[in-house]
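Hey, I was hoping to borrow your eyes for a little while. There's a protein on my desk that I can't quite get my head around. The fold is given in discrete form, as structure tokens running alongside the sequence. I'd be grateful if you could look everything over and explain what you see. Here's the protein in full, and shout if anything looks odd to you:
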Amino acid sequence: VLQVVQDPRTDVSADDLNEQYRLQDQIRTKYSETYENVQKLRSVRKQLKDWLEKARGLKDENKLAEKISQIETELADIENQLVPFKSAGKQPRGIPVGLYFKLKELMGVVASGDYKPTAPSYLLLEDLSTRLEEKFDELDKIYNKSIKEVVDFIDQMGIPTIKI
């Protein structure tokens, strides 16, 4: 039987440690949700590119390319806010970090010691969560409206459709 005991060198209460764990769990949940949304977004972007390839030479190729280009721009903007593109090597100064990275860093701050999480940690999680939800809502609108319109158009062209 494994028994977990508190480090005898600390005088933190079990309630404070439990509160730290609960906040870490909330951060992890939002981090996982962000990861899943980024993966879905990237899958959709790849499928959009595949559609353009499949539409080459077809009658409405230019019309489809125009629709896809607009969606691609919107998706790229959202992805850049969630996880900005990084170049190989050291990250240059002045390039903003995305919301995903900020969540990761917040997890490190909360887990860095044996103490109750600070009020700013809660406020930052609330702010990041709000900003992430706004981006997730934007993605849902794109998936449910713009992508649906493109899927319908692609069906008319006889090209296999996107999977979300």
The longest helix spans residues 14-54.
